[in-house]
Write a structure and sequence with these properties.
This protein has helices spanning 7-27, 31-43, 45-59, 64-67, 73-96, 99-118, 129-146, 151-158, 164-188, 195-217, 223-243. By secondary structure, it is mainly α. The longest helix has 25 residues, at 164-188.
Amino acid sequence: MVDSYAPEILAIAAAVGALAGVIRGITGFGGAMVMSPPFALLLGAKLTVPVVLLLEGLVAAPMLIRTRTLVRWKVILPIAIAAFIAAPIGTYFLVTTDPAVLRRVIAGTVILFAALLLFGWRYSGPQRVVTGASLGALSGAMAGATSIGGPPVILYLLAGPDPIETTRANLMFFICAVSIAGLAMLTIAGAFDPRALWLTAAFAPGYYLGIVAGARLFSRFDDKRFRQLTLLLMMAVSAGILVA
């Protein structure tokens, strides 16, 4: 249970979780990207996945109540449904493949596309159902394997024409949905470690309070600063994953 870890390890992990909550509150998605690399080092890779998915899918869910009216359901629902369908693929890779290898491949891809967007590239075409569903499927598989499922959809939505309030609301809904899908597949596959429940309970208060604080900070960001912060965060965390 929780007491199988040294107190200082739990304290560091709780602090990381609180910081991740602040980022999640600002951007609508960044929690898993901040938590997963340090949690993998502190708790182990295969325990990290269910803990992060629980925090992202359940603890953060109450924030959806405030943003649900801003969600563009026609855009995000096909993405979320495809993520649910593809999540078992990621669970299979989690069980059979070294998650560290998968994370490094994903990290390199995120750095590449985040850099393109940061330096001015934007997706200029329409947000088609087929495009969104394809990226949702990729994200669902990634979430099941590594707990970091957002980057393909995040990059797609950030490059779109929507204002930051809509993009943030879409991302909040999607991250919760893909996290719950990943949890369901872990449970069905028998890969859910019960210790994750105790660890999530220990980290949940700090994570939620971080989300509340981040949500209050969100009003200080305009469109340009929001996108810059988001992309720089993705690049920084991905670089950390590559060297971890």
